[in-house]
Amino acid sequence: MKPKLNKYSAIYTQNPNQPASQAMLYGAGLQEEDFDKAQIGVGSTGYEGNTCNMHLDALADNIKAGVKAQDLVAFRFNTIGVSDGITNGTDGMRYSLVSREVIADSIETIVGAHYYDGLVMVAGCDKNMPASVMAMARLNRPSLMVYGGTIAAGNYEGRPLNIVSAFEAWGEANAGKITPEAFKQIVKHACPGPGACGGMYTANTMAAAIEALGMALPYSSSAPALSPEKQQECAQVGKHIHELLVQDLKPSDIMTKEAFENALTVIIALGGSTNAVLHMIALAQEIGVALSLNDFQRMSDKTPLLADMKPSGRYLMEDLHAIGGTPALMKMLLKAGRLHGHCRTVTGRTLAENLAQVPDLAEGQTLIRPLEQPVKATGHLQILYGNLAPNGAVAKITGKEGEYFEGEAIVFDSEQALNEGLQAGLIKPGQVVVIRYVGPKGAPGMPEMLKPTAAIVGAGLGDKVALITDGRFSGGTHGFVVGHITPEAQVGGPLALVQNGDRIIIDVRGRKLSLQIGEETLATRQKAWQSPPLKVQKGVLYKYAQNVNSADKGCTTS
Fold this sequence. Notes:
Elements lengths: L9 H4 L5 H9 L11 E6 L11 H13 L4 E6 L5 H4 L6 H21 L3 E6 L4 H12 L3 E5 L6 E3 L2 E3 L1 H12 L5 H10 L12 H12 L14 H20 L3 H4 L2 H14 L4 H13 L5 H10 L14 H6 L2 H11 L15 H5 L25 E6 L2 E8 L7 E9 L2 H9 L8 E4 L14 H9 L7 E4 L10 E7 L16 E5 L4 E4 L3 H10 L10 H9 L11
Parallel strand pairs: 1-2, 1-3, 3-4, 9-10, 10-11, 11-12
Antiparallel strand pairs: 5-6, 7-8, 8-12, 9-13, 13-14
């Protein structure tokens, strides 16, 4: 018996009690024969003001044509995006993590309201990708995500560039290490065209994680934005979404606990962004899988860091694609027993079946280290606890920063205050820089601290200071940094009690983040502390601050 593919959209197209619905669908261009077909929502996060997203509408149109060629109805819709690269260092960055919830809610809203039978999302920046898959999890209808692809490297006088080069050049210029003209040219050449930021930053991290999770087609995460392979992927989506409908293969069939373990393994092997901790916990919550900070530590303990990729290494995502892409890395990990090969994917096949068809990593390549000669024997994502982080914090330790830091605190109550302090020369070697009141409620929106960390590196202090915060970091951040400190300062977490000159110990091996003052002193400070008023009193940031949970819970609002 032929499976019913339009089991959702039939409520509008087959119900004689919905004549107005049908009238509007005729008006939207459907013919009578289309009313028996399944309807697919093709969602784009494309918009013109950001390199990561500027080309996505064109990809969505390619996908729509392929879906229609499978005798399905395809309706394109759009949702918003926020550019992390553009907004970093400004109050606009407060909207970035908030946008993940807005995007997920908007996708759920249109697909739920219009009863689409399946969903394809085209995403290209840090928050649109997890948001897309969060919505897929909520809706639990046949779905897949297409990554818009990575940007090509920039170049200035033979120096390869990417978005982080611009931030670090700012620090170099402030320190007098480069001329104003060199600074200007680096900025002009850092982003040469469409595609998401090129290193193993958050966009490429999440693209790889979602592919490993099974929710994107093979090579989706590593095929560059302007490559022929990206166009070929888009053209193939129609047949895959049709097969998902035929099999009735839903996100809940794909996004299992073992699939999440596959994703975490790939994130750690690639040296992925700390933002993945927030996003993977949020995804797991949406699909009903138990995932916590301790799962990241467990997987980090047994997964080596293998990739020599920026920000701490040498290579970009386009370089990974050139040596075999994400599938070749996954094939290597599967052969070594590091992945669960039986997990289902949006191809309709298992992960092992997908990887059996891909070539191995290129001979002689130096981007992915052998398992027996890793960049770091255990993972770079380390979960710390202690009297400064009772509910946990996330450190990104690639092996180049050291595993222990002790120093006196210099405290800033905002990112802007730190940036001003850096320019004024207040930050000295040996200090632990504290940025607080920048958490999910305190900012609100938990902005990234890429501008200050990149400026610290550019100023030559990257290996001389540590930085801790209740905010978060860009995937482009490197250095001795600890973020996601919970509870955050805004709700009275211990970070709110730190004073200039307090001694702080960051012990990665011991997984401790400790303030070296007595319990009585801490209790006295806690008693005297008062919560500052929220920085906003209306609008989406206010709603977010009222509803968001803590970073260790994924900063979700549902």
